[in-house]
Amino acid sequence: MVLGPLSDQHFADRLVSAIIRKGTPALVGLDPRAQSLPPGMLASQSPHDIAAAYQKFCCEVIDVVAPLVAAIKPQAAFFEQLGPAGCTALAEVIRYGAAKQLLVIVDGKRNDIGTTAAAYADAYLGPGDSSPWGGDALTVSPYLGDDSITPFLSTAQARGAGIFVLVKTSNPGGGRFQDLVADGLPLYRHVARFVEELADQSKGATGYGSVGAVAGATYPEQLAELRFAMPHTWLLIPGYGAQGGTAADCAAAFDDAGLGAIVNSSRGITFAYERSQYSHLAGAHWQQAVEQATRDMIAEFRTHTSAGRLPSPSGN
Amino acid sequence: MVLGPLSDQHFADRLVSAIIRKGTPALVGLDPRAQSLPPGMLASQSPHDIAAAYQKFCCEVIDVVAPLVAAIKPQAAFFEQLGPAGCTALAEVIRYGAAKQLLVIVDGKRNDIGTTAAAYADAYLGPGDSSPWGGDALTVSPYLGDDSITPFLSTAQARGAGIFVLVKTSNPGGGRFQDLVADGLPLYRHVARFVEELADQSKGATGYGSVGAVAGATYPEQLAELRFAMPHTWLLIPGYGAQGGTAADCAAAFDDAGLGAIVNSSRGITFAYERSQYSHLAGAHWQQAVEQATRDMIAEFRTHTSAGRLPSPSGN
Lengths: 316, 316
Hints:
The first copy, chain A, has one domain (11-307): Aldolase class I (TIM Barrel). Helices cover 42% and strands 14% of the residues of chain A. Chain A contains twelve helices and ten strands. In chain A, the strands form two sheets. Chain A has an eight-stranded parallel barrel, surrounded by eight helices. A two-stranded antiparallel ribbon of chain A has the order 6-7.
């Protein structure tokens, strides 16, 4: 794989650097749930104590996975569920992940129009001191149309950040609207066409743009179709693991160099100790379950996808 | 107008009660912006001070409009733009509006799948002590499909709350995907059909359901079409005022009793002192500009729409 010099001011360049350094497209989703936290972590059922426990749990997960993966994806909903105390915890988790040199993709599925979209972009996009939340990227929903997405791209480009626009989501009901066929193409392909235009316009040294697309592992044929139709668009793939997608299902989402896609696993990693193969690591050893599940996911992708062509870091 | 007994446990019933009590479908949007705040309100440009100013400003707007209108609609983006301090301010603004007997529609345009959608619903839906944010309703984006919307409806129904699903948005670029024609109908009509099914299933004593739809004043023909196609669906109408829509443009969105629609004005009311006809009320008299702009909007809707058939409360 030969790449030109990568910029630390371009999101896709930064993502590629981090993935090459770690040798894996694995992305760890942080979806904390009170009922699944390790024993002893929850002082009480008050929102304040749950928020404190989410922060502690997520930061300990980050400690385990930071040497292994390129990025984390906190899910805003579970933090917002706790009210303002949860929002404070989310900001701390993002800050902690960034301090550990992880790229942080905030999963907020935000969208709005005009200056309101610009406010969301200003809120979440921009690592370091350039935004109050400090995300490297944000997920964005496309229903509101082109002028709801371009304000996010402007801010992303100015700050070396990125966005991932929902294209083909992993849930069973996603097809209700996304698969409707207009002018010979399903809706998700119309969205994909617009996203690819923006990605092409914003591409960096790797050929990938500051705009990516969300496409679920639960639809392998569509992943292959989208990889072909969106050559400049990085794919963020949910639906692996707990939702049923396998590494083989994701194989077509990668380019020949093992790049072009990042694959999320949330509870399959963070709550690995609830899965039968790691249940011997429940309780005091829960971090070992997190580490082993992460290593197993990395190995599965190296075996079954072109991600095996990424350099293998020593120790992984 | 003859209605059966209205329930205080059903969102549309509660909305109708409040609208009849105030005699207007006017909805005041709270979209605070630092550069538009009245002089002297902003202590510094720190996020903490801006958040404090947003809270103070919005609460003072609420003091003015609470006797006049049924509901307010804070825009989450402008609060989130300030990081966690803004989230705390948003929660306080919602709490203050509820204490003033206003219905609070949180404009967050949230969406996600399965248990994540349920987490957003749990976060925002439920007045009083039943949710951490305490909203009476939340705006929801439909791209993720049917199983991304039904979790919101379950929580809404259990808590006497509501949701408004984006159908035909007010922005120029909204048509990019919403107007794509599949099976003889534009996408927004497919979304409308699903929303109407849910509204019919959840209807209360007024015939309107716990699920409403967002449809912009900037598309008057589509408003008329949607009113006809969605007889059980309350319409939340943005795009009036600053975006160009008039009361006459909204007329077809109402039923014969002056019900069925609620019309938002944000900066046209909160920052009325920036408009030429109210500029004499800038500075120390900014609250008078807010009051006058609200009364002018109410009068315009009573003149140009069937909302004139609502009882006229004394003093308005």
